[in-house]
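Supplementary Methods. Inverse-folding protocol.

Structures were first reduced to a discrete structure-token string of length 565. This string, shown here, constituted the complete conditioning input.
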């Protein structure tokens, strides 16, 4: 009688255990879920920190929590990210009984995914993975109700920006350009960047000798593959630019943070004409291996150990923003009754608009039935809620406003910028998981102008996942918080002839993931009246006068209010 070989153990990316986090990752050996706790004010800390964020006290000790929690939100992951970690499985954010907002990303075990619900009571169980004790949670129907403890109030926002100079109005967008855009075009990313840069410079009526600044996001980086590859140094040397100012990096308020940097540089006189660019080649990097192949730890090798915020997500099979945004969308569905049929209007609208964009990647018609029947990725997000990996580069020239007479065409004016982040810089610890940092960026932008949402003619809003665009619509005031579902119903409000035309080029969902910059490019194209077949015409036959471009999701976001005045 033969004995079948045991199933191989699923692969999990494990955290790098350090003196700072070992209490959390090793406490399970003694059956304890351990956190830092401030001995001055009693605050529980997660992730670990050398000081209490509430009272700034340094007397921190390691204490065991009860291990009881409530499911705050969750997603059922249907994507195979790692070897032998077979979907479906539940990724959840649970809130510990000890303190409102004390949350963990984890897996729910011992329960069918169809039976999971927000508000369920759960308790911690530990599993030993090569000496790291991962805290999972299982149903605890016999647990007492969660303690009723009021959440701490959010600090009030600082005073109005009206008391300060609105410096961004010293800057204009003078030109835009794009390279070839496509799926797996297998071209050198520097070559793509050069094409986009030269196109933008020519669009502004400038020469490369006029460019004295460069700004980019995220700078040169090789991991994950295809995410970047070109930084300031490469483009400066390729074009032999003489620079007075330059910047490139990842720690910015989203992709358009690099444009905000350029605006600040121009407004303060550090530069006159700044070349801003964003280049991706993710489609070629993935080849035919799929998106999981370029995910952190996705190769299945056992040597990588997660650090930073990823140590709190990767061990639980949640390596993708699809998982993190999926949990935010689920919480929004729970609180406000939002439906997939409503959310799907963002993808359907994008596809219709992409059909009028000659550079878009996906242009075939899509119906609501198509959307509802396609495979799930991470509930409630399906394949058509996820943007399309692409290759391409987008460039924008930011110039000093007083150079307008020397430019090829009337530039686009920068009316206001929003870059704020007032919540925690975290995917799972943010105070309101039905929204994101874009809430604060949008509020800051509107605080810097007399214009209102009703003045906006087109909105080009980040749709790396459709729910992010939904959250932008609410944050920018095109509908109230929690009201995007009814606002999107049927799709008429976001159509080219609707209340607020959305993502008129097809967005990243259909035109391709150019990672933020494509929205700014399209906003300028619409304001200049250069949209061709997809050009928006507002009531009375006028072309758009005011546009908003917003990019970023999770703890990163920036928005630009643009006019052609």
């Amino acid at each position: 009688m033969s004995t079948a070989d045991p199933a191989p153990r699923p692969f999990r990316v494990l955290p790098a255990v350090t003196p700072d986090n070992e209490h959390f990752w090793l406490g399970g050996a003694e059956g304890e879920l351990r956190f830092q706790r401030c001995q001055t004010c009693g605050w529980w800390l997660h992730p670990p920190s050398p000081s209490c964020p509430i009272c700034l006290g340094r007397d921190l000790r390691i204490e065991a929590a009860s291990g009881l929690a409530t499911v705050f939100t969750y997603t059922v992951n249907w994507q195979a990210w790692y070897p032998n970690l077979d979907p479906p499985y539940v990724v959840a954010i649970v809130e510990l009984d000890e303190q409102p907002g004390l949350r963990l990303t984890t897996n729910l075990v011992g329960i069918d995914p169809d039976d999971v619900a927000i508000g369920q009571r759960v308790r911690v169980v530990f599993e030993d993975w090569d000496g790291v004790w991962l805290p999972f949670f299982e149903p605890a129907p016999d647990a007492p109700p969660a303690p009723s403890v009021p959440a701490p109030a959010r600090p009030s926002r600082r005073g109005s920006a009206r008391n300060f100079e609105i410096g961004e109005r010293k800057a204009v967008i003078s030109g835009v350009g794009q390279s070839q855009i496509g799926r797996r075009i297998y071209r050198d990313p520097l070559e793509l960047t050069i094409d986009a840069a030269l196109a933008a410079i020519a669009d502004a009526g400038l020469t490369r000798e006029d460019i004295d600044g460069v700004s980019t996001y995220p700078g040169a980086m090789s991991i994950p593959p295809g995410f970047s590859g070109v930084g300031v140094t490469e483009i400066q040397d390729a074009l032999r630019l003489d620079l007075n100012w330059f910047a490139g990096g990842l720690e910015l308020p989203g992709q358009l943070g690099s444009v905000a940097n350029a605006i600040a540089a121009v407004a303060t006189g550090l530069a006159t004409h700044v070349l801003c660019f964003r280049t991706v080649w993710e489609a070629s990097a993935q080849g035919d291996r799929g998106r999981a192949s370029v995910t952190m730890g996705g190769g299945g090798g056992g040597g990588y150990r997660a650090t930073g915020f990823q140590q709190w997500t990767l061990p639980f099979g949640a390596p993708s923003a699809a998982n993190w945004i999926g949990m935010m969308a689920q919480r929004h569905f729970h609180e406000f009754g939002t439906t997939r049929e409503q959310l799907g209007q963002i993808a359907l609208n994008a596809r219709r608009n992409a059909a009028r964009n000659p550079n878009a990647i996906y242009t075939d018609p899509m119906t609501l039935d198509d959307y509802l029947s396609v495979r799930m990725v991470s509930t409630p997000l399906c394949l058509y809620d996820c943007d399309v990996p692409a290759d391409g580069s987008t460039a924008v020239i930011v110039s000093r406003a007083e150079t307008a007479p020397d430019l090829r065409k009337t530039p686009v004016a920068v009316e206001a910028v929003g870059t704020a982040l007032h919540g925690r810089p975290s995917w799972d610890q943010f105070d309101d998981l039905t929204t994101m940092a874009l809430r604060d960026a949008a509020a800051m932008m509107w605080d810097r102008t007399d214009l209102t949402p009703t003045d906006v003619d087109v909105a080009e809003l980040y749709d790396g996942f459709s729910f992010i665009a939904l959250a932008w619509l609410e944050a920018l005031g095109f509908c109230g918080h929690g009201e995007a579902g009814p606002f999107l119903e049927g799709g008429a409000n976001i159509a080219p002839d609707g209340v607020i035309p959305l993502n008129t080029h097809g967005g990243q969902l259909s035109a391709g993931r150019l990672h933020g910059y494509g929205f700014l490019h399209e906003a300028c194209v619409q304001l200049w009246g250069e949209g061709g077949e997809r050009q928006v015409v507002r009531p009375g036959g006028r072309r758009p006068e005011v546009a908003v471009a917003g990019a970023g999701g999770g703890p990163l976001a920036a928005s630009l209010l643009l006019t052609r005045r």
